[in-house]
Amino acid sequence: GGYNIQIVPKIDRASFPKRWLGAEEEELSSEIPGMTFCHKGNFIASAETIEAARAVAKVSLEEYQKEKEKEAEQE
User: Is pLDDT above 70 for 50?
Assistant: First the structure.
């Protein structure tokens, strides 16, 4: 049971926050309740509920956009 969230990095749309990659379930669920897994290869994450999966996707997109804006400012 549960839900998976997949990132498609080849088209540079988003990525999971680096602090999540390979982190333990306890650490992940302390940030987003219900988040259970994030692959260290940055392509898939899992959550127990659809609400948690949506939160994972939302936070990932927001943080990715902030990271890209910061990189653009430094150029």
Answer: yes
